[in-house]
Amino acid sequence: MHELGIMESAIGAVLREARARGAMRVHRIVLRIGTLSGVEPEALRFAFDVAAADTLAATATLDIENVPARAHCSACHEEFGVETGFIFTCPRCGQLCGDIRQGRELELSHLEMS
Ligand SMILES: [Zn+2]
User: Fold this and answer.
1) How many CA atoms lie within 13 A of 56 on its CB side?
2) Per the CB 3.0–4.6 Å rule, which of 47, 59, 69, 109 could disulfide with 7?
3) Could you tell me the fold of the domain covering 2-69+103-113?
């Protein structure tokens, strides 16, 4: 389960930030996860419980924002939503394209601590 490794490094970054700000407790962590990032939100929640145990973030709320994938067509400049995969067909002109503009995010977007 690679979600545990991802969450361990996310928690590591959160704890470094908390120490840098002199925080005693982390209240809320918001992650942005693209639908093409290859990460399962449910597995990430489970990994969070494991990785955050016995840390300043143990009681924090984990919110996951799903970022829908969008691709851009270089032929007609249409931008369109996609589900999964690597190569997409433009719904406007039929051109194949793999220019993903969003959906691969795996980032910490918000942090609350005190
Ligand atoms: Zn197109």
Assistant:
1) 22
2) 47
3) hypothetical protein PF0899 fold (3.30.2320)
